[in-house]
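REQUEST FORM: STRUCTURE PREDICTION
Request ID: SP-0412
Submitted by: Lab K.M.
Chain count: 1
Length (residues): 203
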Amino acid sequence: LSMLVKETSVKELIELLFRVKDDNKRKEIEKTLVSTCIRSRNKEQSAAKVVIALKDADILNKCTLLRVCGCLSGSPGLNALRDGTKDSEKEIQDTAVRSLASYQDQEAIPDQLAYAGNTSNQTYKILLLRGCMKLVDETANIPADKKIEVCRNVMGVTDRAEEKMLVISCLGKINTIGSLEILDSFLSDSVLKNAAATAMLNI
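STATUS: Completed
RESULT:
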């Protein structure tokens, strides 16, 4: 299905989604909708169609559309996820937070950090921080000083060694004095010192 539809089919796919009840068919439509939006020549316009459809969607369809937003990039989808994290419906809020955590654009980093820093839900915090570090680590056009700033912020939010290891791994790829200074602070930690020392040697 995803290889057959045209980018102009976004609206039609959403209408089909709203009609279909079968879970397997809904999953296929969701996958096709993501693929169609990503391949679109006007990605922001396609994402906007998904966002507009949220207004008329029931809880089930709204969650599906939010997951679609989480696979895209650009302001319309990100704004929809921001709104979803504040929704009174727990299912919608859960979907929005998880989709924000897996967002594909560096524009989401401030939102990921902010939500992680304010939530009491440990699962959400872990997902958001890991998603944030994945973006920082894998996005080549983020300046080194910005990456270091994000790493510092993540360290200020988490007390778990697992997320700190992600920070160490990222810092080991940033060849600056600032990166070395942060890594040096881990050398007194019995759990993290070996990873930090190895990362410093890579700089």
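NOTES: The chain has twelve helices and no strands.
Reviewed by: T.R.
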